[in-house]
């Protein structure tokens, strides 16, 4: 799925309608125009980023997730007006929901690419089967979906409006053109369904939430939603990993589907593979993280590698270390003291953007999730968390609240507020 932030989407013109300063201190004035090329979330820096092009020059905008003012998730409409696909295009009003596509647009075979920008309505697969039979191919939200009844595979992106400012909430899938070689390579990958576990924690980054991934063979077929549910229950109970394609990714694989190439690369690894290569694929933003972490945990020096990564100044290694700790079972009794030492050495300097957060809040939150997940309730850990909470009272109230949640979890107490499952 192509990334969207509020009403903004790639390859569309925007005009700044209110002055703002981004998280790097760069001032932008009302009236500026540009074309958004890419958008995304940097979980290491806890920032939204937007790459845009102005008069042929590209630059990146940064917006803190912890900011309470300025452009941020849910408030982009206050600062940007969306236009068309050309830099000179005038921003139109919010479009109405698109009409359902004609049947002729929904009759493509599994291996026949759709023309670009074909409107698919509210379903992700170009077929006439029950949408309840549609599942993602290998990776959720990667823009590749398939029907478990007829086998059709469709590459798409999502457009729409959340209705927050217009009262007109809608979404639709639009096909992404891919070469036949790419569709042929994508089609044999397993289908996947995710079942998130109930969580009482604060929202965490993708990769740090408990969920069951149920892989279904690409050639499995079900006539009804009930039959598909039974198949998923059977695959979930057996916990068997299906076969994965062995062919190398095609050279023209679109960037939005790079996760498939990461997953394939992780499958080629062994515990003896080059450590730097494995760590790059083990970090939480990699689609192959779980597989790479599995190889790391089978190394004879797994604990030492994990400690080195957790203590590293390199964000990729830090992320891989968190992923290793998250999956480490049984828990090494030395890990609690390692995490206490790391937390004691992290600086508590405030972010310069006035967000009321410290610069290292992301690292603290990742460590807190690991502590809660592994139930590292040693007396030393309890004391360290309480001491850190006292030091943070005037610096970062969100981290203070997070520590309260962790302490309650470690003590086996119910959460202060019941919350639903947090999704990636």
Brief synopsis:
The protein has 424 residues and is of the alpha+beta class. Helices cover 29% and strands 18% of the residues. α4 (275-282) crosses α5 (289-297), α4 (275-282) packs across α7 (315-327) and α8 (335-345) runs parallel beside α10 (379-392).
Defining traits:
SH3 type barrels, 5-stranded antiparallel β-sheet, globular, disordered C terminus, single chain, 3 domains, 424 residues, alpha+beta
Architecture overview:
The chain has 424 residues and is an alpha+beta fold. It has helices at 180-186, 225-238, 258-267, 275-282, 289-297, 302-311, 315-327, 335-345, 361-374, 379-392, 397-410; strands spanning 12-16, 20-21, 27-28, 33-42, 47-54, 57-64, 80-82, 119-121, 134-137, 144-147, 153-161, 170-175, 191-196, 211-216. Strands 8-12-11-10-9-13-14 form a seven-stranded antiparallel β-sheet, with helices on one face. The longest helix has 14 residues, at 225-238. It is globular. The chain starts with 11 loop residues before the first strand and ends in a 14-residue tail after the last helix.
Secondary-structure map:
Blueprint: E1 12-16, E2 20-21, E3 27-28, E4 33-42, E5 47-54, E6 57-64, E7 80-82, E8 119-121, E9 134-137, E10 144-147, E11 153-161, E12 170-175, H1 180-186, E13 191-196, E14 211-216, H2 225-238, H3 258-267, H4 275-282, H5 289-297, H6 302-311, H7 315-327, H8 335-345, H9 361-374, H10 379-392, H11 397-410
Antiparallel strand pairs: 1-4, 1-7, 2-3, 4-5, 5-6, 8-12, 9-10, 9-13, 10-11, 11-12, 13-14
Helix pairs in contact: 4-5, 4-7, 5-7, 6-7, 7-9, 8-10, 9-11, 10-11
């Amino acid at each position: 799925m192509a990334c969207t932030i509020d009403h903004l989407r790639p390859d569309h013109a925007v005009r700044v309608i209110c002055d703002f300063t981004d998280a790097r201190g760069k001032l932008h004035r009302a009236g500026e125009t540009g074309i958004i090329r890419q958008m995304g979330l940097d979980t290491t820096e806890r920032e939204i980023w937007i790459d845009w092009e102005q008069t042929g020059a590209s630059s990146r905008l940064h917006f803190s997730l912890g900011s309470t003012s300025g452009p941020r998730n849910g408030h982009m409409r206050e600062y940007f007006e969306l236009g068309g696909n050309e830099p000179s295009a005038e921003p139109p009003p919010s479009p109405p929901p698109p009409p359902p596509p004609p049947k002729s647009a929904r009759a493509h075979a599994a291996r026949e690419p759709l023309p670009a920008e074909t409107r698919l309505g509210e379903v992700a697969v170009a077929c006439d089967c029950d949408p309840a039979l549609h599942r993602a191919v290998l990776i959720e939200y990667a823009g590749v979906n398939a029907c478990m009844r007829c086998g059709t595979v469709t590459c798409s992106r999502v457009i729409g409006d959340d209705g927050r400012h217009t009262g007109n909430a809608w979404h639709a899938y639009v096909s992404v053109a891919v070469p036949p070689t790419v569709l042929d390579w994508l089609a044999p990958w397993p289908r996947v369904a995710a079942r998130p576990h109930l969580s009482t924690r604060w929202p965490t980054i993708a990769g740090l939430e408990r969920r069951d991934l149920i892989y279904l063979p690409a050639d499995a077929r079900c006539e009804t939603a009930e039959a598909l549910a039974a198949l998923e229950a059977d695959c979930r109970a057996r916990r068997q990993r299906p076969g994965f394609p062995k062919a190398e990714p095609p050279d023209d694989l679109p960037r939005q589907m790079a996760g498939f190439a990461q997953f394939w690369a992780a499958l080629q690894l062994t515990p003896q593979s080059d450590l730097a290569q494995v760590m790059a694929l083990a970090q939480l933003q990699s689609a192959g993280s779980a597989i790479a972490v599995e190889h790391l945990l089978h190394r004879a020096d797994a604990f030492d590698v994990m400690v080195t990564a957790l203590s590293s100044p390199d964000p990729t290694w830090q992320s891989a270390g968190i992923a290793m700790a998250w999956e480490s079972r049984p828990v090494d009794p030395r890990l609690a003291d390692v995490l206490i030492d790391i937390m004691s050495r992290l600086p508590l300097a405030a972010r310069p953007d006035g967000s009321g957060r410290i610069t290292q809040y992301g690292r603290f939150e990742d460590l807190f999730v690991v502590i809660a997940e592994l139930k590292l309730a040693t007396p030393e850990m309890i004391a360290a968390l309480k001491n850190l909470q006292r030091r943070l009272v005037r610096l970062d109230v969100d981290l203070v609240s997070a520590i309260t949640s962790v302490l309650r979890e470690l003590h086996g107490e119910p959460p202060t507020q019941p919350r639903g499952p947090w999704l990636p």
